[in-house]
Amino acid sequence: MSLPCQIMVWVMQMLATGSTTPCSRAQSVITSLLTLLSQLTFFTDLKNSMFNPLFAASRYLQQRLNVRFKLFKLSIALLGFLGANLASAQANNAETLFKRIRPSVVVVRTEVSGNLGVTSSASGFLAHRKDWVVTNYHAVTEAIYDAKAHNLTVQAANELKKTARVIAVDVLNDLAILQLNSAVDAPLLELRETLPAKGENGFSVGKPGSFEYSIVNGSFNGMHDEPSSPLIVFSGAINSGMSGGPTIDARGQVIGVNVATSTEHQLIGLVIPSSAVGALLKQTAQQNTPDNAQLRADISKQFAKFGRQQLHRLDSGLNNVRRLGPFNVRADLTNQYVCSTERQAKTQWRYSVVQQTCESANGLYVMDEKQAGRIVSGSFLLQGPDLNDLQMANLVERRLYSLSGASKVPDDSTLWQCSEQRVKVPWGLTVQLHACRRAMTKLPNLNEYRFRYTPLVRGPNALVVAMGLDGFDDETAKAILRKSLSSLAFDADFEKAKP
């Protein structure tokens, strides 16, 4: 074969190699090159003379590449082996942890008295004492606020059902401590004192609904700041019924308590830090066991404290005061929620409405359909350039009546007590104020409030402000109303300034 043909064959062999790694390609090139050189009679004499060192080096390089290639394949195999064993180790660790933790995790049920069925089911775990169970406050509210009609029971592994009662609550962190009628024969779970590192693995344990006890693998991903308390973000499915159960680390220490799952994002769970659990356990151990009335009085104080925190947050809004036509009104109630504005106008109305709606940070859960520490404010600018003073006054009156929010009286609530008066605000305006209050029967010294007011001005522009406050004491509610009134101002030259 001629030299050009041999070179072409060598090039084609090099290009046709199926290897995808640099080491393999280099190995193929050197092998082909050595084969080519050995076949060329033109280099026969040269091979035995000055190029001997070159050929020796080439053979040495080929041997080294063979060794490195074998080491590379061995490394790949080793990584695969380690990965498989790591997954197996994680599975074995979850299995081992579950067997160790399972006896200390219980089911907490709220039952209707007289054996009439179960109204709610959650999880819990033993801590501090073998007759104490940690769970969520929201899981036991019926037993707190309607104790005569509901019973609490706890079911531990391989044990008969035990009766329980709530002896302590932390409403800000959604925690409750239950005391059982007898101890559970199971180990106490240990609380971890430090927060988990971001990316650290953990496990959520509990009983989801009618399914068997579950352990869910996930990882911790920092903190989520809530107005009441911070929560740990856990990338694992915390399903309904697992609330109140423990979230543990790889050693079985309690990182926190399952509390919620994000409704907007998949596999995002929220966990109450164990530091809050430890604080409540310590406080409970140092006090006398309260009866139900004393417990509800303590809960009321906690809600009232949160209400005062909401009052202080009113000044943190990005825009505390906004302009609505000729009026200045109170606006953002917190830096987390910006007020929304909507304009409504219909030809047959002969007037238009600009509505600004503002909400505070989320309130605290009291019971179904009730919250404490929540504020909602609506400001309504009524503009009727074609209406006379009497027609505007009637329009304002109808709007005030529609915003009363005090017409319906549920069976479990007291009657609304309402009053009406005229008050002066700092900017010299006179305001017609309607104030209604209703006691929260289950929580002493806490009330619901409905405030409505309108500045007494003449012209084609009028303003109606309505506020709803739930779960506040009198002092805090009055302070919130004063802040709203102090923001009110009116520009009498507004219409004159129009082009």
Characterise the protein shown here:
The protein is α+β, with helices and mostly antiparallel strands and 499 residues long. It is 30% helix and 33% strand. The chain has three domains: 3-77, no CATH class; 98-288, Thrombin, subunit H (Beta Barrel), CATH 2.40.10; 300-490, Protein Transport Mog1p, Chain A (3-Layer(aba) Sandwich). Strand 15 and strand 16 form a beta hairpin. The longest helix is centred in the N-terminal third of the chain and has 50 residues, at 52-101. The radius of gyration is 37 Å and the shape is elongated.
Gist of the model:
The protein has helices spanning 3-16, 22-39, 44-47, 52-101, 141-145, 274-285, 292-313, 389-402, 474-486; strands at residues 105-112, 118-127, 129-135, 150-155, 162-170, 175-180, 201-206, 214-224, 231-234, 246-248, 254-261, 269-273, 321-324, 327-330, 340-345, 352-359, 364-367, 370-372, 374-383, 417-424, 430-439, 447-455, 461-472, 489-490. With 499 residues, the chain is of the alpha+beta class.
Helices and strands, with pairings:
Blueprint: H1 3-16, H2 22-39, H3 44-47, H4 52-101, E1 105-112, E2 118-127, E3 129-135, H5 141-145, E4 150-155, E5 162-170, E6 175-180, E7 201-206, E8 214-224, E9 231-234, E10 246-248, E11 254-261, E12 269-273, H6 274-285, H7 292-313, E13 321-324, E14 327-330, E15 340-345, E16 352-359, E17 364-367, E18 370-372, E19 374-383, H8 389-402, E20 417-424, E21 430-439, E22 447-455, E23 461-472, H9 474-486, E24 489-490
Helix pairs in contact: 1-2, 2-4
Overall average pLDDT: 83
User: In which order are the strands of the major sheet placed?
Assistant: 15-16-19-23-22-21-20
**Main pleated sheet:** 7 strands, antiparallel
Query: Helix share of residues?
Result: 25-40%
Q: Give the end-to-end Cα distance, rounded to a whole number of Å.
A: 99 Å
- Uncertain segments of ≥5 residues (pLDDT<50)? 2-23, 39-51, 81-89
Radius of gyration (CA) equals 37 Å
The CATH topology assignment of the largest domain is Thrombin, subunit H
